[in-house]
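Hi R.,

Here's the chain you asked about this morning:
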Amino acid sequence: MHFVLVHGWGFNASIWTPLIAQLGNAQVTTVDLGFVDGGVGDFNSDDLGDCPDDAIVVGHSLGVLWLLKHGSDRFRGLVSCQGFDRYCPHVPKSRVTALRRGIDRDPGGTIEAFWGSCGAPGFAPAAALNAGRLRDGLDWLIQWDGQDAKKSLRCPVLSLATRDDVVVPPAMSEAIWGKENLVWLPDGGHVLPRKFPELCAKHVIEFANSISS
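And here is the predicted structure, written out as tokens:
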């Protein structure tokens, strides 16, 4: 069983560390998108590179959109952890451009406020931020559209969400994945893999076993 994990905007691959500890002997590859230095990614990349074609991929937030854009025909299964197939117009473009202005003026203060809204204050030191890459990620949130890739998926999908998520609100999750397809977890803000790693791992492993048997 091989999992490929991709984090969301404003974080790095270390957001997965508590979850990885719950995955037992499973083989795990983490992709670090370069927003925050000091992650534990197995590689930094703009594509899936040599990752196996039959992996179960797990994306957090923007990580799901990134996965859909970079290899949706290669997955054995997809787990969305508070993820989406496009961000705008579910969330007004103005909110994303406001974040970009904040990154231009005060990267540390802007990201600290974002981490606080997610439920992960103090995630990393301000010196670790890569402002240019953070701007790139905001452009992805505005420009990328993975709807067609999601519709063409030939693999099973598991969608995890929380009702207190202010970054990906419940109505957005329901519109993207369908009410009947969502698994609602306890209040976890926007950082389920960090706040409830055991519960997330339980769902991920059960999902993996269901498509591997």
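One quick note: Strands lie at 2-6, 27-32, 43-44, 56-60, 77-81, 157-162, 182-185.

Cheers,
M.
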